[in-house]
Task: structure prediction
Amino acid sequence: MDLGISGKRALVCASSKGLGRGCAEALAAAGVSLVMNARGAEMLEAAAAEIRDRYGVDVRAVAADITSEDGRASVLEAADAVDILVTNAGGPPPGSWQDWQRENFIKALDANMLTPIALMSELMPGMIDRGWGRVVNITSQSVRAPIPQLGLSNSARTGLTGYVAGTARQVAEHGVIVNNLLPGIHATDRADQLDRDVSEAQGISIEQARRKRQEGIPARRYGTPEEFGQACAFLCSQHAGFIVGQNLLIDGGGTNLTV
Ligand code: NAP
Result:
């Protein structure tokens, strides 16, 4: 399918590996030029070079912490007037409700709610002026069904979801389309870390921890960054112009919901 976005420009945050990289790859495959970002320069430069070589699109790499004001400023300078924004950052650490103090919440809100909001605030006015834009926020299945030990993530990401629900409906008339993608478990370093944590906590092997988690997913496997990226590219495509303010679960059926 021709996504109709060849020649557009995108900023894909937190994209040297994992889900962000999957999104960057799929957009590049559709002919979109990229600004990629992550904190670690080496892996980011390597990912940018691979994508540039594979798809022949222009790729700029900006090594910066997207959750800090300075980091965002340097990313935004490179992104300038992008047509497509994919927001992403690392998730907050797990824990229990008694552990979390004000500063833990401020950090989580900054990373997973206020950072995507700041990026949208900066980049959407230009999209509105040009009459076309696409925003995809990578959130989590936890906004539909909370994961108790990820209370910091549940709190910050549902805050972002509330903001998007209203804002998407204010900007749609200008051709700017905003949606959220909600990953379930995907085979990335983050999932490996979760499996390692379970293996240590329960005294089982990492393979056993993985199999146990996969048994709880109707598709009986983890998702891949590639298929996640394809869904992102579709939401950024010309065909997605009537999909406004939605929260699309990509979780192999893992979140047990009727609607
Ligand atoms: P990942 O494989 O660990 O990749 C994270 C990427 O983000 C890396 O490129 C990392 O590079 C970059 N990054 C992290 N913090 C950053 C920051 N402050 N500024 C700029 N770049 C940053 O993680 P993932 O699995 O793709 O997860 C992406 C997001 O989806 C996370 O918020 C995660 O909580 C959420 N999620 C993931 C899953 C899953 O199963 N994978 C499920 C639900 C939700 P550097 O470290 O070099 O910065």
Q: What stands out?
A: The longest helix spans residues 102-130. The longest strand covers residues 176-183.
